[in-house]
Write a structure and sequence with these properties.
Blueprint lengths: L1 H11 L3 H4 L17 H16 L3 H7 L3 H15 L7 H33 L4 H19 L2 H10 L13 H40 L7 H15 L2 H12 L2
Helix pairs in contact: 1-3, 1-4, 5-6, 5-9, 6-7, 7-9, 8-9, 9-10
Length: 246
């Protein structure tokens, strides 16, 4: 089931010309007798693929840079204090396209080394699955802290792993996720600082003027938006995020 789910994920993020080479079998909701074992195998494969289809987005999010990007954008919106602006749909969409941009080398390698040979019959499913995992594992290892990886190796009782090849993918993924969360929170804290200073200055000025009943956020919000626009905040944050992945 994991293999078929992984294939669905890759198909969703590959160029459309690669998708054009996929022959979609005819699917009918019904049962009929057959003497061909291959038809039974194909039907089981389709059922398994449909079963794991609902898990494919979650698997994709946890194995790419999407987690760090969306968390940083959420911190940015909270620091600005703009409530629902930009809206969630916009932030998620921007995060997805930035994920495509950052993960393009890995997806291209998967397309050239795993998917195309698999579709042409040059690779068997087992070998294609292992080949497709290589660039994703390389990316996750590069972004995973050694202490986080050691934690999950101990929890999985795999302390004897000497090389990266000895580390299982099911151990690598949660270590990668908590490393991404830690990095995102660190960046979010840095983003918060200048806006926090503005809030404190505005609150102190209002208190000194005796305007206790006026919420500081009413005055500080325009100043924070102006600061963000003047320093070209979107370019700075997006550029820094992309560079943080090396």
């Amino acid at each position: 089931m994991k293999r078929y789910g992984f294939i669905l994920i890759i198909l969703a993020f590959l160029p459309w010309e690669a998708m054009a080479q996929v022959s979609v079998p005819q699917v009918s909701l019904g049962l009929k007798q057959t003497n061909n074992p291959q038809e039974v195998v194909d039907s089981i494969k389709i059922i398994l693929m449909l079963t794991v289809l609902t898990l494919a987005p979650a698997i994709l999010i946890l194995m790419t840079c999407f987690t760090r990007i969306i968390v940083i954008f959420s911190f940015l919106r909270q620091a600005l204090g703009t409530q629902q602006m930009p809206p969630n749909q916009l932030l998620v969409g921007l995060s997805l396209f930035l994920t495509f941009f950052i993960m393009k080398p890995a997806f291209t390698e998967i397309n050239n080394e795993a998917l195309r040979p698999y579709l042409s019959g040059a690779l068997e499913q087992e070998k294609a699955f292992e080949t497709a995992l290589v660039p994703l594992r390389r990316f996750m290892f590069k972004q995973t802290r050694s202490e986080d990886l050691s934690l999950f190796l101990k929890l999985a009782r795999e302390d004897g792993a000497k090389t990266r090849a000895d580390v299982g993918t099911m151990v690598l993924i949660p270590a990668f996720v908590i490393s991404e969360l830690k990095t995102a929170f660190q960046i979010g804290f840095i983003i918060y600082l200048p806006f926090l200073i503005i809030d404190m200055v505005i609150a102190s000025v209002l208190m000194a003027m005796g305007m206790m009943m006026l919420p500081p956020v009413v005055i500080s919000l325009p100043f924070k938006i102006m600061l963000f626009v003047v320093v070209d905040g979107w370019s700075l944050i997006v550029g820094s995020m992309v560079k943080s992945f090396g």
